[in-house]
Amino acid sequence: MAKILVVEDEEKIARFIELELQHEGYETDKAADGRTGLEKAESGGYDLMLLDIMLPGLNGLEVLRRLRKSSSMPVIMLTARDAVMDKVSGLDMGADDYITKPFAIEELLARIRVTLRKGGRQENVSGVLSACGVEMHVAAHTVTCCGEEVALTTKEFALLQTLLENKNIVLSRETLLTRVWSYDYIGETNVVDVYVRYLRQKLDDAFGIKLIQTVRGVGYVIKDETP
Ligand code: CA
């Protein structure tokens, strides 16, 4: 089973995450400050690191920056709500994913499973994403449904790509907004609903499929059991 390093200075949160991970069968280790976390991560032997940003000693972004000089170990950043710049910086510096505190443990576990499956770096970035008869060729920037090409705008494409990359994970409107529209649109979550509607017109309605599902009070998800 995978071994996960939890770098988090808030004892209660660290303990809670550790217990949940152990309950799922993961091995765990933890560090309560950035410098110890970096030393442990560099010593190897871990399959994934959960890295808080606000840490004593070295902050999480600095830990990540130094780690990436020698290691491509998968890293999921834990960020505070509204710290959009931290998320952007973290992804720029090579984090594999991030999750906003406070988070539901189920979302964290889902992100860990996805990140471990990807084996760290974004190897599928130029590949094909698919679900429910829809195929996205990321590099060629084309989408087909049931073999027929569908024209999407840049934002529609980015939204669909984000949903396909996180298949079977419910993404909140805030998460989609941050990933697809970045920080220019903070607070305007209805823009997400509008673009989901556009995608549904072009895909679900046009081809009679059930692609994008609404999870009431939470967000949107594309469900598909095929890999
Ligand atoms: Ca902290």
Radius of gyration: 18 Å
Heteromolecules bound? calcium ion
Q: What is the count of β-strands?
A: 12
Q: What is the terminal-to-terminal distance?
A: 21 Å
Taking pLDDT < 50 over at least 5 consecutive residues as the criterion, the unreliable ranges are 120-125
What keywords describe this structure?
Arc Repressor Mutant, subunit A; binds calcium ion; 227 residues; 12 strands; Rossmann fold; 8 helices; alpha/beta; 2 domains
SSE blueprint and pairings:
Layout: E1 3-7, H1 11-23, E2 27-31, H2 34-43, E3 48-52, H3 60-67, E4 75-80, H4 84-92, E5 97-101, H5 105-118, E6 128-131, E7 134-137, E8 142-145, E9 148-150, H6 154-165, E10 171-172, H7 173-181, H8 190-207, E11 212-215, E12 219-222
Bound molecules: calcium ion.
Task: Please characterize this protein's 3D structure.
The chain is α/β, with parallel strands linked by helices and 227 residues long. The chain folds into 2 domains: 3-123, Rossmann fold; 125-222, Orthogonal Bundle (Arc Repressor Mutant, subunit A). It is 41% helix and 22% strand. It is built from 8 helices and 12 strands. It has helices at 11-23, 34-43, 60-67, 84-92, 105-118, 154-165, 173-181, 190-207, and strands spanning 3-7, 27-31, 48-52, 75-80, 97-101, 128-131, 134-137, 142-145, 148-150, 171-172, 212-215, 219-222. It has a 5-stranded parallel β-sheet, sandwiched between helices. Strands 6-7-8-9 form a 4-stranded antiparallel β-sheet, with helices on one face. Helix 2 runs parallel beside helix 3 and helix 6 packs across helix 7. The longest helix has 18 residues, at 190-207. The two termini are 21 Å apart. Calcium ion is lined by residues 9-10, 52, 54-55.
